[in-house]
């Protein structure tokens, strides 16, 4: 029960950040067919070299899985621009309507078994799918849902308010960063980037950055 609650909370906080980005006017790539994919971004040529087996135009899910499998040294070697692109695509992937599209595609025979609908409350669609995956008997769909969980930031439950308050500024300042080091706060480098731009941040974001700087 506790594990399920944590997953729901994790997904909910991810979606709070995505909704905040939309409300703030930030450009969010839903990862849909009409949008540029992560490995096709001009600023991520290094990532294409690290993920040579993923074809052009592949879903962001595959690109983000490749990122998860990189060593921390490989992640650190990526340019700031590419790290920001990865951050933005990770956030966008978790958009409720995009998750709905992906689950329809990844679970075509089982999608109708999920009693889930896209709602205004963020994160509920994926949380619902996760809660009801036992309704699926085949392994393929369950594995696909696990893949979606795998690419989400690991500690959104700890930094949800920060993301809600700072998504617009992170996008504007190009400060999205990633980390595969589970011993550290995943957004530590993002916070460090914002620290260097405090005068350009909105009041709530500045407050959140200063608070997280104290507890890192």
TrEMBL record:
Listed InterPro entries: Cys-rich_GLG1_repeat, GLG1
Alphabetical list of Pfam families matching this protein: Cys_rich_FGFR (PF00839)
What keywords does the record list, in alphabetical order? Signal
- The signal peptide annotation in the UniProt record is 1-21
The protein here is known as: Golgi apparatus protein 1
Instruction: Provide a Gene Ontology MF annotation, just one.
Output: fibroblast growth factor binding
The entry's cellular-component GO terms read: Golgi membrane
Q: From which domain of life does this come?
A: Eukaryota
